[in-house]
Write the C-alpha cells for this entry.
Amino acid sequence: MRNEYEFSKGKCGAVIDATGKTRITIMLDDDVIAFFRAQAEAQGTGYQTLLNGTLRDVMQSSQRRKASEKPLTVATLRKVLREELNR
C-alpha cells in the first residue's frame, strides 16, 4: 500500500456510464412500490427493472395502437356520410 495516492484527475460518480439509461427521482405511492418489490422478489429480479419493463410494455402497446389506427381521409369521410344519409 502506498503512502500517498494521486487523485487530482479523479472523478466523482459512476466509473462506467450507463448508456441508454437516465437516473431520475420519481415519487410513487407506497402501495405501488410494495407491489413491484413483492413481484420482483418473487421473480428474482429488481423492482426498478420490473417497473421499467411494465412501463415499456405500456409504451409499446400504445405505439402499436397508434400505428394500427388509420387516418381519416376525405374518401372515407364521404363514404361514411353517404351511408348515413342513405339510411
In short: The chain has a mean pLDDT of 89. The chain has three helices and no strands.
